[in-house]
Amino acid sequence: MSRVGFVLGLSFSLSPCFSEDEAERLYRRSIVPLIELLARYRDLKLTLYFSGNLLDWLKKEHKESLFQLKLFSSKQRRIEFLSCGYYEPPLQLISPRSRTYQIEQHYMTVRDTVGKGTRTKGFWLNDGNWESSFPSLLNSMGFQYTFIDDAAFLSCGFSAKDLFNVFITEDQGRTLFLFPIIRSLSEPFCEVPLDDYFDNLKQLQSTLHEDTVTVFKNGFSLTPQSYEWIGSFFENCRESSFTFLCPGQVISSAKEYKRVFIPSSVGISCFGKMFFNEKFCCYDLISRRFESTGYEFLFEKGHFRNFLVKYQEAGHLYNRIRFIESFLNTCPKADRKRVIDVFAEGQAAYPLRKADDAGVFDAAARQKSYTALIAVEKMLRRSGPAPEIDFDDDGLQEILYFGQTLTALIHRKGASLRELDYLPSAFNYINTFCDYDPKGDFGVFLRRRAACFQDFFLPEDAQTGSVERLHPGLFRYDLSDFIYELESRNEQKRIYRFTLSLPDNVEMRKEYILKRNDVFVEYQFYSTGNQNLSRYFGTELNISFPDCRTCTVKKAGYETEYTLDKPRKFRQVSELKLTDPVNETVLTLGFTRSGDVFFEPVYAETEVNGEPVSLYQHVSAKIIWKIDLRAESSWVTGVTFNIVRAQMRG
Questions:
Q1: Of 491, 455, 312, 450, which is closest to residue 391 (Cα–Cα)?
Q2: Which helix (H) or strand (E) holds 199?
Q3: Nearest 5 degrees, angle CA 341-CA 347-CA 352?
Q4: How far is CA 399 from CA 318, 514, 530, in A?
Q5: Mind spelling out the 3-state secondary structure of 351-410?
């Protein structure tokens, strides 16, 4: 009977915003029994991946576990550790310099903590996506192999039997070995009765000859019972003709390998979410036809970058990464190491994709990346006038303002504020989120972009006193999709004036005045006709907080404090103060004319590990005024958005 190699890999990765309690719980549940398993079975060989933040945490909290793992790896040669980008970045999206830096940092950390004396030969693709340039990148850095989901090979025309091989691919004359992760064997591993799984494996063995079975699991999904299952499975394998191997042992044997060229960005985290709305119906129809054939996963593919188009929040974060990269060369050599260290943390892939976890829906993870990117911006501070750049590659020039305390991005579409960074706390107060279809989560956009100073009109007969919540469906004119014309700009005074022609012979001017700690927006309406007009005009401010907080409402000289954990409406308000104790700041909204304010916490509906969840994102504040515009006259109002540091009580 032929000998068959069994490669078992486990990946351990902590989310960017993990808590100490969460890390300790996962460590006790999944890493401690792993070490006990390796100590009990001295012939067991595994392939392990530990993320950079996990290695840092283990170094700080559990050095004893790293010592044991180093013993298994360096002296007993029973573990092969995989390298990756240190902060698990999307390698397809970051520059070659950033790729190299992050990979080297992770490699050196692995070498110094658990693999001293050995060279890491394998690489872990943390997001499951692939680009055809990876072989030359990884080979040039000394890596010999990586792991790819089997759907990628099937989509290239190989059969299911071919998956029990190791493939070789090439780019620019540099080669890389590819181990197909066999999904049909990986998903039930540890999840089904041991006898059933092993019987299925034995049936496959009759068709295999000196082949390799590759199984990979998320290590933090395993429990002590799972490791008992693995121990029993290993004993069964020893009694049969299955041999546990490390990947380095497989590729060192002399044999002929099949060649393959995999299209860019085929990965298990893409699915139908990559398709635009008009394409998704076609995707859904085709995939349903194969739903019960066992080949439906052939259609779970798409181009990674389309995710950035469908989920605007991921796209904006990526644009920020790319923008900072563009002037990283201005960094003095003495500071470059420190700057690149911080920049690497802002490049994490977790908030730039959506798989079984929260991903882009995780507001805290997005904010963590923004915090690192803002910190880099502070280190590379530039002076001079606000440049006009096409920040998001949509053909429109935006204004990017660099102040002493604030950074602001003004977009001509809706003349809205797309980003507002408070530099002392390195916090983006417009890290907001749109509504997406919770059914299937295919990136179907349900509402307008969640930015600041998005303007609208209510119907002429609107009665704001009887309405408790303002939904965009109630708007008569939604101006967030209108392209405002930049009429003038005064760089010395930081004044930017936009204009828009409205129906009924009304001209609108919207003027931004940017100062040290505040953004002042003034609205001017001019009637060019000979009739009197009465309209309800409003603007929406979407403001990001670490979580739901409180607001202080100033009305008729009195101040009252309210929580923002549910929708609230305030009549004829002149000032609102929003507290952010996490960043020790107070945000003040001041109105030159009293208006009605509708507050609402915004949540996003998604799925995490198959379970529906509702994740807090930001607070929406809609301010409403009644405009009484006489013939050939004007009407003016203004809003001040002020951010200052303040000592929080308690």
A1: 312
A2: helix 194-205
A3: 165
A4: 18, 12, 36
A5: HHCCCCCCHHHCHHHHHHHHHHHHHHHHHCCCCCCCCEECCCCCCCCEEEEECCCEEEEE
- Listed in order, strand segments (DSSP E) in 201-312 are 212-218, 242-244, 258-259
Which region, left, alpha or beta, applies to residue 239 given φ > 0 means left and ψ of -120 to 50 means alpha? alpha
What single-letter DSSP state applies at residue 160?
A: T
Question: Tens digit of pLDDT for each residue in 537-572?
Answer: 999 999 998 877 777 776 666 778 888 888 888 888
Cα–Cα distance, 446 to 606 (Å, whole number): 14
Q: Do the Cβ atoms of 181 and 150 come closer than 8 Å?
A: yes
Cβ count near 179 (within 10 Å): 25
Q: Which two tokens stand for residue 132?
A: 């055809």
pTM of this prediction? 0.87
Residue 98: helix, strand or coil by DSSP? helix
Handedness of CA 125, 100, 339, 398 (dihedral sign): negative
Q: Which helix (H) or strand (E) holds 452?
A: strand 452-458
Q: Could you tell me where the beta strands, DSSP code E, fall in 40-194?
A: 46-50, 79-83, 122-123, 145-149, 167-171, 174-181
- CB count within 10 Å of CB 291 equals 10
Q: Are 247 and 45 in contact (CB under 8 A)?
A: no
| 3 state DSSP class of 202 | helix
Residues paired with residue 558 on neighbouring β-strands, in sequence order: 555
Answer positive or negative: Cα dihedral of 359, 365, 367, 372.
negative
Q: How many helices (H) and strands (E) does the chain have?
A: 16, 28
The HSE-up count of residue 402 (CA atoms within 13 Å, CB side) is 13
Q: What residues contact 450, with CB distance under 8 A and at least 6 apart?
A: 432, 433, 434, 542, 602, 617, 618, 620
Helix (H, G, I), strand (E, B) or coil at 618: strand
Spell out the residues 6+ positions from residue 203 whose beta carbon is closer than 8 angstroms to its own. none
- Top pLDDT among 541 and 159 is at 541
Q: What is the pLDDT of residues 271-329, one digit of tens each?
A: 444 333 444 444 444 445 444 444 444 434 456 677 787 788 999 999 999 988 888 87
Q: Are 76 and 130 in contact (CB under 8 A)?
A: no
User: Tokens standing for 390?
Assistant: 């096409």
What is the per-residue DSSP string for 557-582?
A: TEEEEEE-SS-EEEEEEEEEEEEETT
CA dist., res. 368 & res. 473, Å (int): 33
Q: State the Cα–Cα distance between residues 216 and 71, nearest whole angstrom.
A: 23
